[in-house]
Amino acid sequence: MAARLPGPVPAPTAARRLAGSLALLAMILLPFVIAALVTVPAEPRAREAERAGFVGSATCGGCHAREHADWQASDHARAMAAATPATVLGDFSSRSVTDGRHSATFLRDGARWLVRTDGPGGDVADVEVTETFGADPLQQYLVLMPDGRRQVLPWAWDSRPREDGGQRWYHLLPEETLRAGDPLHWTGRDQNWNFMCASCHSTGLVRGYDAARDRYETRWTEISVGCESCHGRGAAHVAWARDGARPGVLHRGLEVVLRDRSGGGWRFLEGDARGIARWDGPPRQATQAGVETCAPCHARARPLVADPLPGQRFLDTHAPLLLARGEYHADGQIQGEVFEWGSFAQSRMQRAGVVCADCHQPHSGRLRAEGNAVCTQCHLPSRFEAAEHHRHAAGGAGARCVSCHMPAVTYMGVDRRRDHAFSIPRPDVAATIGAPDVCTTCHAGQTQAWAATQLAAWHGPPRGPPHPALAIHAGREAAPGADQALARLALDRAHPAILRATALSLLPARPSRAVGEAVGGTLLDPEPLVRAAALRALEGLPPQNRLHAARLLSDEVRLVRIEAARALAPVPPDALPEAARAAFPRAWAELLASEGVAAERPEAHVNIAALLAQRGDRAGAEAAYRAALARDPAFLPALVNQAAFEEARGQPDAAEALLRRAVAAHPADAEPIYALALLQVRRGRLGEATEALAAAARLAPDRPHYAYAHALALHRQGRTDEAVAALARNPRHRESLIAAAALERDRGRLAQAEAHARAALALDPRDREAAALLAEITSRAAPPQGALGR
Fold first, then answer.
1. d(CA 487, CA 507)
2. Torsion over CA: 423, 428, 430, 436 (sign)
3. Which of 123, 174, 203, 750 could share a disulfide with 226, CB 3.0–4.6 Å?
4. Are 55 and 177 within 8 A, CB to CB?
5. Which candidate, 336, 414, 418, places its Cα nearest to that of 375?
6. 557-596 per-residue burial string, b: 16 or more CB within 10 A, e: under 16
């Protein structure tokens, strides 16, 4: 299933952390906005007019028979199809299956393909399969609902050969006990084809969401991924051909020019000891042979525009996921289902000018050569296929380039996909950051230290500056000195943009000189992804400190412009520089339109509410929250964030009612309990708040600030022993250590106070507050001058 991507649900209080606790499907991080308050382009006429130039792959095949034949055998051609005997691969011969948690029966009723399973209301029902979805190594099935939604069934057919374990039904979420009403249930919003998958599995798509009626009228010009998904609308090209291929027609009428006609090529330069080919010719354009063309569907990214047409700049239509925890290991290895672009964007090959079509046949999708031959197009076999390089038996698995440079991860149970960063194995770094490495994945009985020693013996110790993974890992763990390491990485233009942007995204919220230098030094960076990340890093600053974003409101790249508008959302119009005042409304409209792409999602309304609230539009924000809860009455970010909004505008009773509703709907989630407790503290009900804080700390022991808040509440009631015990649960939490040291100091237990202060200072030797506290405690503990002689 193809995926859309996130932006976090912003919130003015502790609810900002809520997005991480929602436990949504890993593929689904999303952008958000309210349709009622955003002018979404009129779907039917405007979109249909744009789609008028599509001619269909069959038309292309009339002149391009070989390419058409290659395409027909590709995964693109089989991305989606109407359910027919020719397309359905699964066994529907009244086959019943169960995995202990889930059960289903697959049967035929004349020309209909049916699945008997738990339906929209929770009761077992027969649902009709209307389309197939993919083919190899698995096939999924779609069900058309009365409101135009197409939902993806959780049962997939393993289409691999039987000898490989295939030719069977299996459940895609075997560990989840899902019931109707859960977003992850096959009838829920997170399994909705129209929003999540359609744009990358069909051609000329018009999603056709009707916000007023909350239904879809999704249309396409071709049910699968056809020629025009990559080459753009073909009408002008067909007209050119029918007119006798007359000269003077720009690019022969093609909307997207993919063929490289520069005359350049990959060549081995005489005397180059590296044995690696270099591009000889004019610089390659990003659209040539498909990086920009492939990226929208081969990246985890959130769309910035509705139903984008092919040929547009990637960052004008999408915001790609950075190297987020849980999706990528800190060294950039793929972890979650992130597809190929994010790893390829990290690679040396991408920076050297390699494009997708250098390795892949663009029409069949197959590799241009088998085995190592695809690599030796540019890497001399005499050097890189030699035992001195790979150190494994010739012809064996260890001698294959991909074994060491393209580790694979299996998704959706059977779909094994390779990392495209083409990185050099570093088991020493993997050991430090807690990531897997290719050496010990294959040599399962050995340690990463053994692997690192072996590599050093063969190729010498690692050279060069510290590996960027160490900075990314330090930033994720909020380690001492992380700000400086991240700043160095962000400012180093020798590293790829996605790494540098990730470093900016991990900068700590607390200002420091390193943070300021990193953000200030990248706002005007040549890489638009870096500029956009620098703008997001401004969000933690007061409005008056965000004015540097104003000069980017007219940036050439849409992603940068909308991030500039987001950064400036709380800045009053008259505080903007004169030159930026005309640009802001245009960028703001683009921002709202980008959020409007997800108008069917409750998250959309939460995000737009935060934006409108920052602009002082309280009525609009309130309407947005109402719209979110109309989509999902129990949607946790909407309940918690609206509670913060209501309290901020002087409605504490309304805020408390919303939080109690959230606690009732999500009794096992600590976040709404914590938010309710903080509200009770502010309302002077300390006793109630203390009980709630204790409950939150029990439910989420991995969030030390819950126990910290509980300890402060206990202390305010004179229960200092209990407060110190609560703080002791998190011996590596800086605020807990500082608080414990202060409490122990105040009651004269100076040895215990000194131990806590020293532990806090050990976390970050530059921590001035911890150092001052330790100095005060040790001075109190020291005997007065001359006391020893008396």
1. 8
2. positive
3. 203
4. no
5. 418
6. bbbbbbbbbbbbbbbeeeebeeebeebbeebbebbbbbbb
CA distances from 601 to 3, 4, 29, 624, 634 (A): 14, 12, 11, 12, 13
Measured CA to CA, the distance from residue 97 to residue 87 in angstroms comes to 22
pLDDT tops 80 at residue 26? no
Residue 327 contacts residue 321 (beta carbons within 8 Å)? yes
- Of 134, 138, 181, the closest CA to residue 159 belongs to 138
Q: What is the DSSP string of 469-499?
A: HHHHHHHHTT-TTHHHHHHHHHH-TTS-HHH
Please write the tens of the pLDDT for every residue from 550-596. 999 999 999 999 999 999 999 999 999 999 999 999 999 999 999 98
| pLDDT tens column, 109-122 | 999 999 999 998 88
Could you read off the pLDDT of 657-684 as tens digits, one per residue? 999 999 999 999 999 999 999 999 999 9
- What is the chain's alpha carbon radius of gyration, rounded to the nearest angstrom? 29
Question: What mean pLDDT value characterizes the chain?
Answer: 90
Q: Where are the domains of the chain?
A: 80-201, 266-426
Tokens of 153: 């069934």
Cα–Cα distance, 436 to 329 (Å, whole number): 9
Closest Cα partner for 465 from 494, 427, 500? 494
- Phi and psi angles of residue 592, each rounded to the nearest 5 degrees, phi first: -65, -40
Statement: residue 8 has pLDDT above 70 = no
Core vs surface per residue 231-268: b (16+ CB within 10 A) or e: bbbbbbbbebbeeeeeeeeeeebbbbbbebeeeeebee
Categorize the per-residue pLDDT at 273 as very low, low, confident or very high, splitting at 50, 70 and 90. confident
